[in-house]
Amino acid sequence: MDTPDIKTMVRERYGSIAAAESCCAPAPSCCAPTSTPDAKAKARAMGYSDADVEAVPEGANLGLGCGNPGAIAALRPGETVIDLGSGAGFDCFLAAKAVGPGGHVIGVDMTQQMLAKARANAVAIAATNVEFRLGELEHLPVADNTADVILSNCVINLVPNKEQVFREAFRVLKSGGRLAISDVVNTVTLPADLCGDADLICGCVSGAAPAAKIEAWLTAAGFTGVAVTVKPESREMIASWAPGRGVENFVVSAFIEGRKP
Fold it and tell me: What pLDDT, on a 0 to 100 scale, did the predictor assign at position 4?
């Protein structure tokens, strides 16, 4: 599938989720809209605490993602954070609380409907240290040397040119800045019927890259201290994204870390 086709498909799929329309991915999946109770349960299964789940505005947690990048971010007051693929703002609002009024959080998303939802959520809780920008992750609408930390939760797998995403992440980080990413990685080559499945491309399965390739891309971009830590316990969650198809045998959630010297 060509890059423009993938981007259009992903944009339309997640736009419909933000608009609370039906999603044609296998349900339940990482990209399927869920009711609030289900979204809260999914977030807890991904490593968010009860306090995290209750701290965000209604509608910010859509039950998306494959982990909790904040768990490895070690955010500090006053830091500037960029969330790649910020969706309705769940991780942004948690980061905003962690960095405090002296800090700043920038969410970047390519889906207009998600941006509208996130901005409405920010207004609802008067979150003045958060902003949301329209943009693609391969071309971030952010100046060089802006961020102390980059977060992302199960979004980079959806981008065809992942290597360029990591180059952009390096560009916008300050010296000493760090990555704290949760995403899926490919552990075994996908068979053709899974690899070309549009639902599984949008559903955070078919676009996963091997850990070794991610490490190589990050190193080539200039990052040091690169680590991809696989989470075997995530297989049960991933199995629920496409029941009966065995996707948990091919992809697994992982934490991805690196630092800009």
Answer: 79
